[in-house]
Design brief:
The structure is a single chain. The chain has helices at residues 2-27, 40-48, 53-74, 80-95, 108-132, 135-167, 170-187, 191-207, 211-230, 233-240, 247-255. It is an all-alpha fold. It folds into two domains: 1-133, no CATH class; 151-260, no CATH class. α3 (53-74) packs antiparallel against α4 (80-95), α6 (135-167) runs antiparallel to α7 (170-187) and α8 (191-207) runs antiparallel to α9 (211-230). The radius of gyration is 21 Å and the shape is globular. The relative contact order is 0.10.
């Protein structure tokens, strides 16, 4: 009876989450004319799949195992379920029948319905598995699947996105390489930087250096500077070169309680 109740609750919660995620991801394609409700990286990753249903499905599948291991091992859902699995699988579901992104991926109503279906299936499947699996297998799942998924996210995915950036043209490849390298140094993962590089490169290719592309570049620079500061990248960089850390920099970090 408990298992049945948990399954029903998971289906309902998954449907609500998938509905909002699907609609939010689709609405981002209509910004700034329409207010978006999604994550910026979700938009970039959806664009990177270029409307190919197999690419969308494969991308979501790559994050399924890590999320599954997390719910089985520690009982917690990862953000990848909402940011990556549901929107990409919803897109794959719609694009498998109609490859016109304007009528599928960019349609909030269709994406909301598809997201609700995918969300209900994914959340109920993961939750029911976590409840039914023995404790000994939960430990195995945590020790085996999580490291494998980390290899996928930290090694394979950056290579895939970098190849996509290079394939999009010289300008996009250069921006993807530069921002991807900086992202790897600052954040420990090159994917966010490569996605931003693709957006910058394609934006310049399509419209040139206008107010939008310049504002986007300025926002990216601010993002990297703040991310590096709060991750103590500046201090670690000085330490790697065996240089003394200025007292002013220590006091600045202490002021924001970063801990120098």
């Amino acid at each position: 009876m408990d298992f049945f109740n948990i399954l029903i609750e998971a289906i309902i919660i998954g449907a609500f989450v998938g509905f909002s995620v699907g609609a939010g991801a689709a609405r981002m394609f209509h910004a700034p004319g329409v207010q978006g409700m999604g994550a910026f990286r979700t938009l970039g990753e959806l664009n990177a799949c270029e409307g190919d249903p197999i690419a969308h499905f494969s991308f979501g599948l790559g994050f399924l195992f890590n999320s599954w291991a997390s719910i089985v091992g520690v009982g917690a859902f990862t953000q990848d379920i909402a940011h990556r699995i549901i929107p990409n699988w919803a897109a794959a579901l719609l694009l498998s029948r109609n490859k016109n992104v304007e009528e599928t991926l960019h349609d909030p109503a269709k994406m909301a319905i598809a997201g609700a279906v995918i969300g209900a299936v994914v959340v109920s499947l993961m939750t029911s598995t976590a409840v039914a699996i023995p404790e000994s297998l939960q430990l195995i799942a945590t020790k085996v699947l999580v490291p494998a998924a980390n290899w996928l996210i930290n090694l394979v995915m950056p290579i895939v996105f970098w190849m996509a950036a290079l394939d999009a043209g010289r300008r996009t490849g250069v921006w993807g390489t530069i921002l991807g390298g900086i992202s790897h140094l600052v954040m420990g993962n090159a994917v966010p930087g490569i996605v931003l590089g693709i957006l910058i490169g394609q934006g310049v290719e399509d419209t040139g250096w206008n107010r939008i592309t310049k504002s986007l570049l300025a926002a990216i620079i601010i993002l990297f500077v703040l991310s590096g500061f709060f991750r103590e990248f500046d201090i670690k960089l000085l330490q790697q070169f065996y240089l003394n850390i200025p007292d002013v920099l220590k006091e600045l970090h202490a002021l924001f309680k970063v801990g120098a």
